[in-house]
Amino acid sequence: MPRGRAFRTTIWDPLLIICQIIALQTLYYTSISVIILFTLLITGNDITLDHILDYREFRADTVLGWTLCFAWIANAVVGYYSGHIPTTFVWWVLNATTCCIMIFGGELYCMRKEMEPIVLDDGENGNSGTNAGLLGGSSVVKGKRNEDVGYELVSLEEIEIR
């Protein structure tokens, strides 16, 4: 191709992206279908779409479940095999970076979710009914509510137990 006339390198083309996604999904499910068909014919099991689409078919207590697991692993090898181990520095950095983002992002999300306050208000008189039963009375927190996060951390001195 002449210089400057590369195929869609600078144009945002959602139709092309959607067609590529459909093509990859079709190729992926076609290859897993062929592999599962081959393994089920060899093992003599009945062939159903559940073996491809139902996650409950992957079981560790049956030979069929193990066979399906190995078929999916074989499909992953077939789907991403390029003839050699990647040797470019950028490929390794990209994969390491995405792994770190997923690991640390997941950890951060879990920590934030776990640190959300547990609401113990019974809604009747504004007292914390659950704490009242545990402490033998009711507890009142002096302080204001932070509207951004829904709560405010207070020191232990600000908590009154009646």
Report on the structure:
It is found in: Golgi apparatus membrane. The protein is mostly helical. It folds into two domains: 14-113, no CATH class; 129-161, no CATH class. Helix content is 52%, strand content 4%. It has a two-stranded antiparallel ribbon. The relative contact order is 0.05.
Strand order of the largest sheet: 1-2
Helix content range of the residues, please?
40-55%
- Element pattern in H and E: HHHHHEE
Described by strand count, sense and barrel closure, the largest sheet is: 2 strands, antiparallel
- Count of helical stretches: 5
- The CA-CA distance between the termini, in Å, is 83 Å
Short summary:
It is found in: Golgi apparatus membrane. This protein has 162 residues and is mainly alpha-helical. It is built from five helices and two strands, in the order H-H-H-H-H-E-E.
Please tag this protein with its features.
golgi apparatus, 2 domains, extended, membrane, 2 strands, 162 residues
What topology does this entry show?
Blueprint: H1 14-43, H2 50-53, H3 63-80, H4 89-114, H5 129-135, E1 139-141, E2 159-161
Antiparallel strand pairs: 1-2
Helix pairs in contact: 1-3
